[in-house]
Amino acid sequence: MFRLLFLALALGFVACDSPRPEVAPARELGLETRFPLRMGVVLAQVRVAISDLEKARGLMGVARLEEAEGMAFLYDEDGEMSFWMKDTLIDLDIAFVARDGTVLEVRTMTAGDTETTRSVTKQARFAVEMRAGWFRDFGVKPGDRVNLDDLRSAVRARGYDVKKFLP
Asked: Rounded to 5 degrees, what angle do the CA atoms 32, 142, 146 make?
């Protein structure tokens, strides 16, 4: 009986002395999360592609977008941007956006097209893809602004360093 009691006490002390399991940090929001993004006077809901893998995948395999749903692609430096539509199932419009949030140009891309769509400018910092015709239908055009505060909030929520992508 003493042995059993001693064993129980010994195990109890060992259990009390064991390190506590680490509490995992709150998980950042993933690529499937939609964030509000104002472009001009219109509010859209966009996924935010930040990692190279997310940007490479883009909207491949997406069969349908809601009326004001799209994807923003964030880069850490200005330049000429290139996109293609391999394995993309729906036609898309793409807006190339300057570092300050100014829409520079809007182009239409055809589903499945493996030809590259390039920005004319080398000053693009971001791109936003929406269903084909969206920018025209909602009056968002070159010279309009993408709200950088909305993008900053999305980047923070995704767990990335805002300063790397946005001024």
From this structure: 40
Identify the sign of the CA torsion 166, 36, 124, 58.
positive
Per-residue pLDDT reduced to its tens digit, 21-80: 333 333 467 778 999 999 999 999 999 999 999 999 999 999 999 999 999 999 999 999
Q: 9: helix, coil or strand?
A: helix
What is the DSSP annotation of 1-13?
A: -HHHHHHHHHHHH
- Taking the C-alpha atoms of residue 47 and residue 50, their distance in angstroms, rounded to an integer, is 10
User: Do you know the residue count of the chain?
Assistant: 167
CATH topology of domain 33-165: Jelly Rolls (2.60.120)
- For the entire predicted model, the pTM comes to 0.81
Kindly tell me the number of DSSP H helices and DSSP E strands found in the chain.
5, 8
| Bridge partners (DSSP) listed for residue 83 | 117
